[in-house]
Design a protein that fits this description.
Catalytic activity: N-acetyl-D-glucosamine 6-phosphate + H2O = D-glucosamine 6-phosphate + acetate
Enzyme class: hydrolase
CATH architecture of the largest domain: Alpha-Beta Barrel
Number of domains: 2
Pfam family, one: Amidohydro_1
InterPro entries: Amidohydro-rel, GlcNAc_6-P_deAcase, Metal-dep_hydrolase_composite, Metal_Hydrolase
Largest sheet: 9 strands, parallel
Structural class: alpha/beta
Strand content: 15-25%
Shape: globular
Keywords: Carbohydrate metabolism, Hydrolase, Metal-binding
Number of helices: 10
Length: about 425
């Protein structure tokens, strides 16, 4: 115990010899952590007269907020859209493995599937608090699933793996023309008045963090409004929507674009479609439209990546869109109900040239984004941390190194290779 004036008997850790990402720039200063949260050193010194119990020498490394992946379908042989006898164990395996890539929180993503899959792959009815954040109701993860559907447990991260913030349901309410790798026979429209279709398909919306849908589908307006009112992020994707339809969806509460440029109408100067949201003057002034980018060097040409970033840098969110084959050798694997063939760094629907997710890791995406876009180190890191946290409404406790935020950290060298990962101030992986 450093001093009898401290407000807590918990040990204090001081990270020294580091550059920390704060206020959009790397700063040479120490980082102080207690009880899983980042401390204000001024209050510690002058109000508590406290000192560090232990010091971690970072040897000049960068400390950034832990990465948050809002679109990841699986990896390491695990497919979140496949109902197995041990779905929970599969999610735990991926959660553990992605720690080495700097990911401290993620949204397990389920692609278009038959209703019985959603009913089998669900979340727990047990309430769980997100690390230590006391400042936002968004950081609470608690759900009630239909009866025995308790396969995926939403939980805080730790040595066992990255934290699960909720599910991302990508489909089946998407466009037939832009279905991509989603199986056509399971696509749905809003026929029963909107929300009834969602409940009939998913079984529940409790603890769903994000839903991707096509805004041009009839009756989608009321669905977007209802989802947004429930605090669920609405993403526009797999769509042939024109700009006017996309703008109306944003005005109704949509705030994200699923993998920009992919599975949507290509940009056209007379009607830029969903892509036009990046510079639309019809977006409410108090709102930000975020957009996902799969920066794996395959899904989006580097020139297109640069165009998007320069048009709307504060909205770019890096996603892996990783599938079961991430971390596996070339060959045939699954994504939901489809067979996927891995050829080099490409993932195709077997027998076609239709891209089907990626096999990239988040740290790979960060490095490629910086190299391809010419952005700063700070911008590359914030696209994988601050921006997804802002999108999900949890930036007061995740995605930043501000005082009071969760001490979810990633240590990187100057080439942006991950050297260590911390969750709630505890080391959970080191190279």
């Amino acid at each position: 115990m450093p001093t009898n004036k401290s407000v807590s008997k918990a040990p204090i850790t001081q990270f020294v010899n580091c550059r920390i990402l704060r206020d959009h720039k790397l700063q040479r200063e120490d980082l102080w952590v207690r009880e899983g949260r980042i401390l204000d050193p001024e209050k510690l010194f002058f109000d508590e007269e406290g000192y560090a119990d232990q010091r971690v020498d970072c040897e000049g490394l960068i400390i950034a907020p832990g990465f948050i992946d809002v679109q990841i379908n699986g990896g390491y042989g695990i497919d979140f859209s496949q109902a197995t006898s041990n779905v929970r164990g599969g999610v735990a395996l991926v959660a553990k493995k992605i720690l080495e890539h700097g990911v401290t929180s993620f949204l397990p993503t389920l692609v278009t599937s038959p209703p019985n899959i959603y009913h089998k792959v669900g979340t727990t009815s047990t309430p769980v608090l997100s690390t230590t954040c006391p400042v936002s109701h968004h950081c609470l993860t608690y759900t009630i699933l239909p009866k025995v559907l308790t396969e995926v447990k939403v939980q805080s991260g730790g040595v066992e793996g990255a934290g699960v913030l909720g599910c991302h349901l990508e489909g089946p309410f998407i466009s037939l023309e832009k279905k991509g790798a989603h199986p056509e026979q399971y696509l749905r429209s809003f026929q029963s008045g909107g929300m009834l279709d969602l409940i009939e398909t998913y079984g529940t919306l409790d603890n769903v963090a994000m839903v991707t849908l096509a805004p041009e589908l009839p009756n989608s307006e009321m669905v977007v409004r209802e989802l947004a009112q429930r605090g669920i992020t609405v993403s526009l994707g797999h769509s042939v929507a024109n700009l006017s339809q996309a703008e109306e969806a944003v005005q109704n509460g949509a705030s994200f674009i699923t993998h920009l440029f992919n599975a949507m109408l290509p940009f056209h100067h007379r009607d830029p479609g969903i892509v036009g949201l990046l510079t639309s003057d019809q977006v409410p002034q108090d709102r930000t439209v975020f957009y996902g980018m799969i920066a794996d060097g395959i899904h989006t040409n580097s020139a297109a990546l640069r165009i998007a970033h320069r048009a709307h840098p504060t909205g770019l969110v890096l996603v892996t869109d990783a599938i079961t084959a991430m971390g596996l050798p070339p060959g045939h694997h699954t994504l939901g109900q489809q067979v996927i063939e891995i050829q080099g760094l490409h993932a195709y629907v077997a027998g076609t040239k239709t891209l089907s997710g990626s096999i990239a890791t988040m740290d790979m995406c960060v490095r490629h984004f910086k190299q391809a876009s010419g952005c700063s180190v700070e911008q590359a890191l914030e696209a994988a941390s601050l921006h997804p946290a802002q999108l999900l409404g949890i930036s007061r406790c995740k995605g930043t190194l501000d005082y009071g935020a969760d001490a979810d950290l990633v240590l990187l060298d100057d080439a942006l290779n991950v050297r260590a990962t911390y969750i709630a101030g505890q080391e959970v992986w080191r190279k």
